[in-house]
Amino acid sequence: MTAPREGSRSDDRAPVPAGASDAELLHAIAGGNEPAFDELRRRYGPAVARVCRSVGADREDCEQEVFARIWRKAALFDVERGTAAAWLLTVTRRTALNVRAAGERPVSSREVPELAADPPEVDAFWLDGALGRLPERERTVIELAYYSDLTDVAIARRLQVPLGSVKSWKRRGLNRLADLLGEESA
After folding, report:
1. 174-185 pLDDT, tens per residue?
2. What does the pLDDT look like over 109-122, one tens digit per residue?
């Protein structure tokens, strides 16, 4: 996705400001900013992959098409109509369903899955995006604690770090996560 857009501005390689919101990234992508696109892809790549898998689409083709559409359609995002994460999820689900349908036999209208995302799926999408924005050690500790159900002591052993470090990283990570998720719900 590094091909410049027709009429792209001279700031298409401008660095992304630290802590840029998802909405700011989409605005920059609409202007052809490749570093903003790379950052958005880093943040939402795992969430996009999960949605592509959940609808049964070919994961790699689906992911590629999702991010191609985001690159082309970023200018359509309107902060007045909803959050960036909700817009990204909508693009992802619709693209995944289209990719899956392209590889299948024709289906009846009764077989077509619902396009609207369930609230838990939206929450999981936001959470994946927010986790991707955390520093690696904070993200790792949170994932081990909440996805692998490990105690702080077990995490410290696995990572071979002091217990106090694990506790500090987890607390800081949870605080950052709350801030990031609060940003999306605003």
Report:
1. 888 877 776 554
2. 444 444 444 456 66
Is the pTM for the entire model greater than 0.85?
no
Neighbours of 43 (CB within 10 A): 22
**What single-letter DSSP state applies at residue 3?**
P
Q: Which two tokens stand for residue 10?
A: 């001279």
Instruction: Provide the sign of the torsion angle of the four alpha carbons 22, 23, 28, 29, taken in this order.
Output: positive
Distance of CA 15 to the CA centre of its chain: 20
Per-residue CA distances from 164 to 5, 148, 167, 171 (Å) = 49, 20, 5, 11
Q: Say if residue 74 is exposed, middle or buried (CB neighbours under 10 Å; 0-12, 13-18, 19+).
A: buried
- Residues ≥6 apart with Cβ < 8 Å to 151: 145
**From CA 138, how far away is CA 161, in angstroms rounded?**
13
H helices of 18-58, in order, are: 22-30, 34-54
Nearest to 123 by CA among 42, 178, 181: 181
Residue 158 in tokens? 């696995």
| Alpha-carbon span 107 to 139, nearest angstrom | 41
Report the 10 Å Cβ neighbour count for 4.
Answer: 11
Beta strands in 56-103 (DSSP E): none
